[in-house]
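Sequence, C-alpha cells quoted for completeness.
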Amino acid sequence: MTLRDQIRLKHVERQAEGYLELGMAQHALDALARLGDEDKLSDHASYLRGETLRALERYEEALVPLERIARATPEDMHVWLALGWCYKRIGRLDRAVRAVEQALKFEPKEAILHYNLACYLSLAGDKGRALRHLSKAFTFDPGYRGMVESEPDFDPIRSDPGFQALLSTVA
C-alpha cells in the first residue's frame, strides 16, 4: 500500500468515525464503501463497517466484518461486545453469551461485559449466572445499579427473590 493509499484510508476511517459519532450511520457506510470490498479493508475499517451496520440495525450483515475482526484481534472487547449485541438481536442468545464470555477472558473486570452478560443470561433463563454477573457488574461499577430498573432484559428474573436481594443491598 502506497503512502497515498494509507493517508486516504486513514482519512476515510476518520470520516466514518465522525459520521458514526454524529448518528449519521448511512453516511459512514457510504464513506467506507469507497474503500472497496470487505476483504480488502483494514481491521479498523472492518470494525467501523460492522459498527455502522449495527447502528443501521442490519445485525446479520454486521456479523460478517465483526466476526472477521474478532478472529484477527481476539483481545478487543469492543468487537466481542458488538458481536453479542448483534447476536442478541437476531435471536441467538447462545452466541451472544459466548461472545461476551470471550471478551471476559481478556477484560475480567470490565463492568459493561458483566452487565451485558447478565442481560443475555437473564433472557436465556439462566437466573443463577445472570445474578452472579450482575453482582460483578455492580462491584466493578456501582453506576450500573441505576440502569437495572429500566432494563427489559431483566424482566424474566425481576420477581426472583435473589434479584430483589441483589438490588436491595447497599453498594
Summary: The first helix runs from residue 3 to 21. DSSP finds ten helices and no strands in the chain.
